[in-house]
Amino acid sequence: MTITIINYKLLPFCLCKSDPSIDTTTMSNVATKVAVVGGGISGAVCASTLAKNGISVTLFESARGPGGRMSQRREISEDGKELLFDHGAPFFSASNSDVLRLVHEWESKGLVEEWKENFGSFDCISKKFLDIEQEAPNKKYVGIPGMNSICKALCNETGVESKFGVGIGTLECLDDEKWSLTGLDGQNLGRFSGVVVSDKSIASPRFTDVTGRPPPLDLSLTPELALKLQDIPVSPCFALMLAFSEPLSSISVKGFSFKNSEILSWSHCDSSKPGRSTASERWVLHSTANYARGVIAQTGLQKPSSAILTKVAEELFQEFQSIGLNIPRPFFMKAHRWGSAFPTASIAREQKCLWDRKKRLAICGDFCVSPNVEGAILSGLAAASKLTEMLSCL
């Protein structure tokens, strides 16, 4: 197996494996098994990049599939129709050369397309659309046929073994410089030469607030990183998924933000994206953070009940109807809570990930670089670079 060192500016000061004259086929015989925790775009990019550099990767994701906030939600209407929604990130843009290189690679594989539609904003006081973009300054990219398609492909690449529906109970650093992972059910998940954590909740006090259990990653193991990981601020929101029998002809754009609404933040027409079914018109709306905080203050951080979500869905839809665009009643309506998926801080903007070389522990995610998909990708690349450098020198 030949190691191809990725073209990334944070990659190695160590040259022991970068000389093409050196036979690197034995690298896989060294203890180069890495665990990646979290199957969002940051973890998926990291896992894929490590695998391309000859490192064996096992990815663990507690959800049924990959994606994180790039997940695609599958719902069934009362009359049996399948409805798919990108209920987290509606699209992403890219300007960094390393990210654009990946995006172009994904485009060539049919995983990504540009979403060419007009976007704008709507003023809820004047009842008018404003700032309609005829040509956006940055391209808007979407996964094909869903936002999660990119993560799915990355998690299925050669060298990546992905295990979904597996929550991590503990990550233990052993005396022999190895890591031992245990599942939430107590199952031994194996030993690894390094660990990448792309799920910030796994090392956060918030984990205890939600589950009643201590965080799987004991931050006393990494005192230098612990302070940075404490109480990363997040922006909660509720997503509302709507399906209509007919197009909403009164809306002249396919995505818009709300001005002067205390309840709604933005909306987009999911069915207008390339590669999507147009059998029905589907919209996704996101609430404001303040609205979500108000609901959480009353109901708590635990998973919201169906009654709470039904109430939230009705309140968000009533606000949508009240803007004066003659919005009919949808045949499908459902709310989802994003409790901590959207960070509002960047804790490692320069380094792009947190790294403990001695313990071979990297922590990556959009909360390290910038709170968007591009930031998550950059952080995943940085984490892969750190471990590739370290393990190629063993």
TrEMBL record:
<dbReference type="Pfam" id="PF13450">
    <property type="entry name" value="NAD_binding_8"/>
</dbReference>
<dbReference type="InterPro" id="IPR036188">
    <property type="entry name" value="FAD/NAD-bd_sf"/>
</dbReference>
<protein>
    <submittedName>
        <fullName>Renalase isoform X2</fullName>
    </submittedName>
</protein>
